[in-house]
Structures are given as C-alpha cells and as structure tokens.
Amino acid sequence: MSSFDRALGDFADVSRREQAQLNRQQLSDHAILATLSGNFLGTLVELAESRSPIVLITRAGSHHRGAIVAVGTDVVALAPDLEGRRILLAIRAIEALRGPEISTGRAVEDVSDGADLASLLDQFGEDSSRVALLTAGGNRLMGRILGVGIDQLTLRLDGRESDADAMTIPLAAIDEVVIEP
Question: Rounded distance, CA 85 to CA 75, Å?
C-alpha cells in the first residue's frame, strides 16, 4: 500500500469518526432542545397517547396510580381502577408525575378539542353518579351530581334526603373527583 493510500485511508477514518461524533452531538442537541421547548401539558398529552402507568401526585398529597386516558383543557382523566372508579384531576392540582416513561413533553399550548371538567362531570351527572370531591381547600364532599353549570357543580350530599339540601361548588375549587361505578 502506498503512502498516498495510507494517508487517504487515515483521512477517511478521521472523517468517519468526526461524522459519528457530529451525529451524536446533534442527537444530544435535539434532546436538549426538546427539553427546553416541552411543557407540562405536552407531557400529559404524551402520557395519554402512550397509556403508560404513572403516579400523579396532587397538592393535597394524594398519589393516584394509573394511566392517563384523556387530557382536557383543565382536567386529566385516569383509566378506571380495579374497582371501576374513574378519577378526574384538575391539571392545576397536579404537583408531580412519577413513572418509567415520562418524557420531557412537547410544546402544547392548549387542548382546544379536549373536554373540560364541566363537560365530563355533566356526562356522569346524567347517570346520577355518586362522586367524592376534594376541593383546593381540603374539603371532602360525597354525594350525587344534581347538575353542572358553566362554572359550578351541584351535589346532593350523602345522608341528605332532599335536593333542598344541595350544595353548590365552584368548578375552580375542585381538585379531585372520584366517580363511583
């Protein structure tokens, strides 16, 4: 092999190494950019798409285990648990997520075609579903949904005989809803 061929081979080896290093750097740069541009709503949407099991930790200290099945404008819905209960969490009440497949999320500004807490509660209200609510102030309320307005929920509390003893709660005050099957 001539010295020219050796020099050409060395040059090609160096060029391949530099290209491989550049490719690795580009992958790293893309990962960093994805982290910087991602947001919490995007992370929730990705988790809903993957249906990965996670733990959602709320500001009240609750730990909800399950897969996110829907992300609305202001609410996250979890898959029914083993007892058939459905859990709705206000996005603003979620403090942390834990799980093996949590990514950095993508940039999502809104979920304009997603449901909101009012519409989901209204669906369950049609069946007179029994719910347990936790408010942002730490109040726990249990009862049957009587009606859902634009920004409020009316419950007949457990142990009350008539709808005259109903309680109305602003939707903005609701952090967690557990819907009985």
Answer: 16
CA proximity to 83, closest of 65, 57, 98: 65
- Residue 164, domain member (yes or no): yes
Whether 77 is covered by a domain: the verdict is yes
Instruction: Give the pLDDT confidence of 64-121 residue by residue, as tens digits.
Output: 999 999 999 999 999 998 899 999 999 999 999 998 877 666 666 666 567 899 999 9
Domain span including residue 129? 40-179
Confirm whether 109 is domain-assigned: yes
Chain centre distance of CA 30: 24
126: its two tokens? 């049609």
Question: How many residues would you count in the chain?
Answer: 181
| Helix, strand, coil percentages, rounded to 5, for the chain | 35, 35, 30
pLDDT score, position 85 = 92
Residue 104's CATH number: 2.30.30.600
Regarding pTM above 0.70, the answer is yes
